[in-house]
Amino acid sequence: MVSVYGDIQAKDDYTHPLGPEENFNESMYFNFFDQGAGSGGFLRIGNRANEGYAEVTLCLYLPGGEVLFSYLRPRIESNDAMDAGGMRFEVLEPLAKHRTTYDGGALFLTDPTQMADPGQAFRENPHKRVNVDLIHEAVGPVYGTTGAGQPGEDPERSFARAHYEQHMRARGTLTVDGQTTEIDGTGLRDHSWGPRYWQAIHSYRWLTCTFGPDFGIMVSEVTRQPGDRTQTGVVVRGESLERIRTVEIDTEFMPGTRHHQRLTANLGLESGERLVLEGVVKGFIPLRNRRAGMVTHIGEGMTEYRCGDRVALGISEYLDQIE
Fold first, then answer.
1. Cα separation, 118 vs 269, whole angstroms
2. Separation of alpha carbons 198 and 157, rounded Å
3. How far is Cα 194 from Cα 201, in angstroms, rounded to an integer?
4. Fewer CB within 10 Å of terminal CB in the chain, N or C?
5. What's the pLDDT score for residue 154?
6. pLDDT above 70 coverage of the chain, percent
7. Interatomic CA distance for residues 287 and 117, integer angstroms
8. What is the DSSP letter of 161?
9. For 191-224, what is each residue's pLDDT tens digit?
C-alpha cells in the first residue's frame, strides 16, 4: 500500500458526488516525460457536469519543439466517469496504478506560441491523428487533502479545495499519424474536486519534476489576491515526504510577453535543508481561459530541471489574470 500524507482514502481516487454549486469541477491530470526522448506532455479531464460539459485537454511536446494540442468541451450528463472527447482515465489500483488513453485529433504547432491567438492557430495549422495509451504507476506517496472540516468558501472564490498529487512512472505508447513511439518516463498526477473558476485567484506558479523513483519535487506559490501569497510544496524521497516551508522564485520571461523561459526556485525545507531548483523551458505553449469578460493566461512549459547533480524534464505552469 502506498503511503498517504493527508486524509485521502482509496475511494477518493474515483469520482465524487456532484456538489450543488453550478461551477462544481472534478478534474484529473497526468503529466509524463520521457527523459531519453526529450518529449512528454499532459492529459486532463475536468468534469463540469452541472454546466453540462467536460474540459478535455491534450498537450504533447515533441523533441523538435513542436506541440500537439487539443482542447474540447464535449457534453456530459453526469460525474460518473472520466471519459469524454476521446479521452479516458481508469483507476487500475487505487492510489497506485492508473491508465490514460486518448484517441482523436490534435493541432500540430511548429510555433506553439501561436496559441496566444487560438482562433488563428486553429485556422492556420494542420491536424494529426493521435493515440495515447499509458500506464501510470506510483513512485511515491499520495499527498493532499479532501478539504473536510475546512470552513465553507464562496464558490466564486474557490479553487481546488479538495486536491492531492502523486509522483508517477509512465509507460506505454504514443502514436501520431500511424507512427508509434514507446514511452518510458516519469511524471506527476493530480486530482481535485469542488467548485472552481480559473478566475478565482490572482496568479499561481506550479513546478513539478520527478527525477526518478527516488526523488521528486513539487513547488506551489498561489497568490489569491495581490499581497496574499501562499508558498508550499514537497520533496519526495522514495516513500518519505518532507514539506517545503519557504519558496522564492525568480523568473526570466520572453521580453514583452508572459512567456516564462527560465526560473530559479530557492526552497527551504521543514528540516532546515535548503535546495535550489533551476529550470530551463524547452517547450512552451500559452493557453487561456475566458469567463465573464475576464481572460486568464496559463503558460505551460516543458522544463529541464536541475537540482544538485540531478537533471530531468518536468512541467512549469504559470497562471496570471490578464488585466
1. 40
2. 9
3. 15
4. C
5. 61
6. 96
7. 9
8. S
9. 999 998 888 899 999 999 999 999 999 999 999 8
